[in-house]
Design a protein that fits this description.
single chain, 238 residues, alpha/beta, Rossmann fold, 2 domains, five-stranded parallel β-sheet, four-stranded antiparallel β-sheet, 9 strands, 42% helix, elongated, MoCofactor_Util/Proc, XdhC_Rossmann_dom
């Protein structure tokens, strides 16, 4: 791999952006394709499919066969609220291959005893997110039922384009949340991205069942997520 290409690849990975390398097998030529540039590449359809699945593989190009090597940022699940649902989410998220972190400024809830071996932050979300910003490869689940804790991360998730944004609460609770977000200047089209009530509609009632429902929605959102180019096109048309 050429040094220039390697530097570009490492820069994209450090910034937590999807990127692929395409190697033309006949000539041995390689190129770097960033997520924002997919639509300009001759193998756009194959590259998009590879990024969605996260699987590298072969593709037919104008020069013959090409190998598409995919580099995806590790998907993260950030949970706002160190509650019983969060405790159930930890093993489920890990089994699905997600890095899970939990934020809750309420020190009575956010304790190592309740969340052994978990990246736990007993601080206000805005403090944590300054050091660990959200990005399009992060899913956000807010489940404290406390607007003072939940609303800030929701606004930040909408701003940064998290691939999944879910909020716990009844439709009535979410209605009040929508009013607050509107008052904060958030567009209705953005607010509609919030999955509320949170999780797949499976009739979940217990913390464990709700955790399963949340994880099902997170996985679905990740596998069906829109590419950067698609999001950019929608923004331009809005």
């Amino acid at each position: 791999m050429r040094l220039e290409l390697l530097k570009g690849l490492n820069a994209e990975r450090k910034a937590r952006r999807a990127v692929v390398t395409v190697t033309e097998l006949k000539s041995g030529e390689q190129r770097l394709v960033r997520e924002a540039e997919i639509g300009l590449d001759p193998l756009a359809e194959a590259i998009e499919k590879a990024i969605r699945s996260g699987k590298s593989g072969m593709a037919e190009s104008g020069e013959g066969e090409a190998f598409i090597n995919v580099y995806l940022p590790p998907a993260k699940l950030l949970v706002i609220g160190a509650v019983h649902i969060s405790q159930a989410l930890v093993p489920i998220a890990r089994a699905a291959g997600y890095d899970i972190q939990i934020i809750d400024p309420r020190t009575a809830f956010a304790t190592p005893e309740r969340f052994p071996g978990v990246a736990l932050h007993a601080e206000w979300p805005d403090v944590v997110l300054k050091a660990r910003p959200l990005d399009p490869y992060t899913a956000l689940a807010v489940i404290t039922h406390d607007p003072k804790i939940d609303d800030g991360p929701l606004i930040e998730a909408l701003r940064t384009g998290c691939f999944y944004i879910g909020a716990l609460g009844s439709r009535k609770t979410h209605g009040r949340r929508v009013e607050r977000l509107r008052e904060a200047g958030i567009a209705q089209s953005a607010i509609e991205r919030i999955d509320a009530p949170i999780g797949a509609d499976i009739g979940a009632a217990t913390p464990g069942e709700i955790a399963v429902a949340i994880m099902a929605s997170v996985i679905e959102a990740f596998r069906k997520r829109k590419m950067f180019a698609e999001r950019r096109g929608e923004e331009a048309a809005a």
